[in-house]
Amino acid sequence: MKLSINGEVHDLDVDPEMPLLWAIRDIVGLTGTKFGCGMAQCGACTVHQDGIAIRSCVTPVSAAEGSEITTIEGVAGKEAEALQAAWTALDVPQCGYCQSGQIMSATALLQENPKPTDADIDAAMSGNLCRCATYQRIRAGIHDAAKAIG
Amino acid sequence: MKISNLGHQVSRFQPSRRQFLVGAAATGVGFKLAFPARKALATEGTDPDPFDAYIQIAPDNTVTILSAHMDMGQGCYHGIATLVAEELEADWGQLVVEGGAGNTKYYGNLAWGGVAQGTGGSSAMFSSFDRYRRAGALARTMLMNAAAESWGVPAVEITAAKGVLSHASGKSATYGEMAEAAAQQPLPAEVTLKSRDQWQVIGSETFRRLDSGMKSTGRQDFTIDVKLPGMLTAVIAHPPLFGAKVKSFDASAAKAVKGVVDVVQVSRGVAVVAENTWAAMKGREALTVDWDESGAEKRGSAELLAEYKAALEKPGLVAANRGDAAAGIAGASKVIEATYEFPYLAHAGLEPLDAVAAMNGDTLEIWGGHQMPDLYQAVTAQIAGVTPDKVKLHVMKTGGGFGRRAVTDADIMVEVVETAKAIGWKAPVKLLWTREDDMKGGRYRPLFVHKVKVGLDAAGNIAGWDHRMIGQAILVGTPFESFAVKDGIDGTSVEGVNDTKYAIPAFRAEVTNAQTGVPVLWWRSVGHTHTAYVMETMIDEVARVGGRDPVELRRDLLKDHPKHLAVLNLVAEKANWGAAMPEGTYRGIVLHESFGTVVGAVADIKLNDPANPAAGFKVTKVTCAVDCGTAINPDQIRAQIEGGVGFGLGSVLHEELTLTNGLVDQANYDSYLPLRIEEMPVVETHIVPSENPPTGVGEPGVPVIGPAVANALAAATGQTVRILPFSKGVGV
Ligand code: FES
Ligand code: FES
């Protein structure tokens, strides 16, 4: 099966039921996308499928065929860059394990809603657990990134 | 060389013997690790050569600092980099921090007398403050001496700044260019550390964490990301009941799953080893294991709670006894009686437990969250049949920890090495626990019940305080027993109660060590997770019953403790305590010391329906004040207080790990519920200026938030929540 990740097409010989997460991590070898729960409860595995944030741990790899998958390694554009700059300036990450997923979800949020309120942020980011509870800085980082984009 | 500046490095645990006994439970064989004498390490020894132990400078001018402590997110790498950079005169951009391991003399935790390397008890900065500043100063002096020698000028004429050595003559060299010559220099006999007014890095707000960029772009590697040629991935089928063992297993269906390579028995279950994670998981689903449950724990939380409550009617071990509490209560004009229940809690770090093991030649290499490296090295060496010096530990940053990576029987390390050994060392093995394995795998914050009786005299003063606790002792039967268990009393069960600073002249505390088959462990802030809650809600209740303002009462009870008073006064001032509150909003205050750090917190809550507290509430803001001694990285102190408050708030609102007939009821984040973003309050942190040695901040933010919210809710309802989590009894 053919899988397009970050603009590159990979030919994979895998169980079509294998979650996209494990195809990305174990077969393609891109490990920026993380495993936290395997059941769409934590958001650590968030990637974009044709620009929409999805949980790769519950998406069979077969369902990703024919679409463009973007992972943290390939995410680009003004929203992602502004978010990553804000994350660094504010020292958002603690352990950092959730942060690939946070950036992927926040990027999707800003692409859709360039000026989110706190309530918008809470609604869009609720599916991304941060066990270190860096939420205050995540909110601040999203606001700063939104401002920087203008 | 004399160590001239170690005056404050008194150990907080006084080891009673020079040997560190590794628990028999680890491998089925009791054995001892000989450690150098504490005395030589902590007070009279010599500094190690900084270039052997702590600092490596590459020709390209990269400075790699080897950390004695593991970074699980709490930022100790940042703190240690700050200490080194200050004295080394390094440029922030040239620094890299990696985990050091395998040499107790260099890396032994000075808060534990230096007898073992480890990260815990919020002690990393305490242990590192002099060690890493001295290493930086020694390395800089050796670089300057090398430059002086090579340029034929006096060393005092050399300037070291931003990673570059220079001389008025126009000569200059990067540290990298002079590194090799510096390493040949003799160790200076004396080095003078900068005075506080000379500091430019310590206490600064300028320098960002070295790993923020990596962690924001997916480039930070964790154990789960380790890739080695030919590496296989394993998952283990563990017994569903604690204490059950493998009777037999049928691997035929598992082996038929495409990608499964091996199915092997290990001491705690059956490992399915496969070419990738998905194949390993599918293989485990197909595996059938017959368990011997004869020795297993079959009680549930309800039975345990009932037994604990009954046991509390009997006296326990006396942890504190001042004055005559019983007489004070007998003669009191009012008695408050309360029973509190705290559930088991899971650490639930976002990266589930994992480790990678590979035998390379005669050396066993292990990648993982090596929070207690000396112990892990000794335990795994024995399984592999090599000497400990033939175990090379790669210390990985971990996706959270909260205590779970410091396990006295080295659980995940034992499992990965047993698995790699069982397949004949034919390939490197990555062992991954799934979220369900992690949640059901034990090592919880122990279930605890407290029963407190407080007598008040007619004026509302505390006439007697009788406090009974019951729960499993974390350290009994572990290598730390000699450090922290005295007369059967585990310090981690009673800390926060027996050492209260409140002036209570008639005070008695007793503890009963419960025995259950459920494995328990330290969970971020350990005993303080429950003791602070009880102490601080009871003090508030004393204020309420006695008609006193909670801040005023605490001021009275702490009048001989200026440090505590200063924190209390600062938090009250910053939160504008006493101001009129808008309708439907309430606040609660807490002051608690843990790990030498004093934290004050005011929690503001807003009722969903001002007329009906039962309709739930939201925590809107938490104002904190903290005295953690010298503030090495003010912004990381704020980050840890914010994170600690969020972590602690999740635990009191929703988290509980329960058992039914011995089986864990929760499996994943759909049933075990850490805080999510919509429940995160605004947290404002104020740091008390201090010139005392640094104490920790990784844990002390956790214990204050629960009682602060409970006190705010009690201000609204007159009722203190005593059965946790809140979701059990209050709408949240
Ligand atoms: S791993 Fe996919 S949501 Fe948690
Ligand atoms: S930074 Fe640790 S889980 Fe988010």
UniProtKB/TrEMBL annotation, chain A:
Fetch the SUPFAM superfamilies from UniProt.
2Fe-2S ferredoxin-like, CO dehydrogenase ISP C-domain like
UniProt keyword annotation of Cell wall biogenesis/degradation present: no
Q: Does the keyword Iron-sulfur apply?
A: yes
Q: Which residues form the 2Fe-2S ferredoxin-type domain?
A: 1-75
Q: Tell me where on the tree of life, at the top rank, the source sits.
A: Bacteria
What does the record give under GO molecular function? 2 iron, 2 sulfur cluster binding; metal ion binding; oxidoreductase activity
Q: Which UniProt keywords apply?
A: 2Fe-2S, Iron, Iron-sulfur, Metal-binding, Oxidoreductase
Q: What is this protein called?
A: Isoquinoline 1-oxidoreductase alpha subunit
TrEMBL record, chain B:
Q: Name one GO molecular function term.
A: oxidoreductase activity
Which SUPFAM superfamilies does the UniProt entry name for this protein? Molybdenum cofactor-binding domain (SSF56003)
Q: Which top-rank group of organisms is this from? A: Bacteria
Which Pfam family, an example, fits this chain?
Answer: MoCoBD_2
Domain Aldehyde oxidase/xanthine dehydrogenase a/b hammerhead positions: 217-295
Q: Please report the name of this protein according to its UniProt entry.
A: Isoquinoline 1-oxidoreductase beta subunit
